[in-house]
């Protein structure tokens, strides 16, 4: 009976590195998503219910956000490669970075057994429609869309980095996760800067109204993904 339980825990540790090692209070080595860590677990504390919920929420929301971002850039590229081929490589570059971001959260979802949002089909359609719609309004409008989205997402990643600060010492995997959040935030802010500095996002028609509407939509999407 003991052997069976021990084997089960080892299996869980392989599949869910942070969750298993911390939730089961391991003090041995842990094999993580981004390599093998020979550092002992910093603490034998198990995660509280609130911390577990926070971890699931961070991964679920970010997975959904990166999925939406991929769809937006796909929609923009679909239009702008025809209407303004000069900007297409920039959009492609941003889209490629979003593909990388999504691959990270696909991995986290699998490794930590996090259920993706049930609203995924909605973000698929809404993201692509926003990308196509903004690009049809012109390059500046497409870039104003990027400015709005990346402003909200940059703030969102900063909030998550702050909210997970207390997890830092609980396991080395949490440091890795928070480093990833910072890396992705920097990419998103790079998109924001490119849109504003290089592609005149703020000269888009009805810029204030347009960006505020998109920011509100993004904040609503984050709120929904935290819950569903
Ligand atoms: Fe992203
Ligand atoms: Fe982005």
TrEMBL record:
Pfam families: COQ7. Binds 2 iron ions per subunit. Fe cation 2 binds at residues 98, 150, 188, 191. InterPro entries: Ferritin-like_SF (IPR009078), Ubq_synth_Coq7 (IPR011566). Its EC number is 1.14.99.60. Keywords: Iron, Membrane, Metal-binding, Mitochondrion, Mitochondrion inner membrane, Monooxygenase, Oxidoreductase, Ubiquinone, Ubiquinone biosynthesis. One of its GO terms (biological process) is ubiquinone biosynthetic process. Belongs to the COQ7 family. This is 5-demethoxyubiquinone hydroxylase, mitochondrial. It comes from Schizosaccharomyces japonicus (strain yFS275 / FY16936). The lineage of its organism: Eukaryota, Fungi, Dikarya, Ascomycota, Taphrinomycotina.
């Amino acid at each position: 009976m003991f052997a069976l339980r021990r084997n089960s825990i080892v299996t869980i540790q392989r599949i869910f590195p942070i969750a298993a090692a911390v939730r089961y209070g391991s003090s041995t080595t842990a094999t993580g998503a981004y390599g093998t860590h020979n550092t002992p677990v910093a603490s034998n504390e198990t995660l509280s219910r609130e911390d577990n919920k926070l971890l699931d929420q961070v991964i679920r929301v970010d997975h959904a956000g990166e999925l939406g971002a991929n769809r937006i850039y796909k929609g923009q590229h679909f239009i702008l490669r025809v209407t303004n081929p000069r900007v297409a490589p920039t959009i492609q570059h941003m889209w490629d970075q979003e593909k990388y971001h999504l691959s990270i959260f696909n991995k986290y979802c699998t490794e930590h057994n996090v259920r993706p949002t049930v609203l995924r089909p909605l973000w698929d359609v809404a993201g692509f429609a926003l990308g196509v719609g903004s690009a049809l309004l012109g390059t500046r409008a497409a870039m104003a869309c990027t400015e709005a989205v990346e402003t909200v997402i940059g703030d969102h990643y900063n909030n998550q980095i702050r909210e997970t600060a207390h997890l830092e010492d609980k396991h080395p995997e949490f440091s890795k996760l928070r480093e990833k959040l910072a890396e992705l935030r920097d990419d998103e802010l790079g998109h924001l800067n490119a849109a504003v500095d290089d592609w005149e996002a703020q000269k888009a028609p009805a810029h204030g109204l347009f960006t505020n509407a998109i920011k509100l939509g993004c904040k609503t999407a984050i709120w929904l993904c935290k819950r569903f």
